[in-house]
Amino acid sequence: MAGWINQRMSNAISIWANGGYFDIPNGWVTDSCGIVFAHMEAINGAGDLDSELAVNGLIESGHHAGDAGSWGASSLVGAGATVSFTLGKGSLHYFKFRRMH
């Protein structure tokens, strides 16, 4: 039990020390393993939304629908992965990364 607690505390400290999520540009190559997160807003908050999250050029998740408010997707990625998004309709709310050391 003590080992489990120690591991959880170490993970929490590592995440805190690494600053949490930060903004990244489209097509960014990760410098460590971590979580990429994309969030898109529909046209006028409730219209068409056409967007995808891709890792190394492969679609990880996508949303193609009308009458949507917003859409978000996340993915665990390794170091050296190219992360990107496509946006046909709607607007980017944020595109972020969080290192997991």
TrEMBL record:
List the protein's name: Uncharacterized protein
Q: Which organism is it from?
A: Escherichia coli
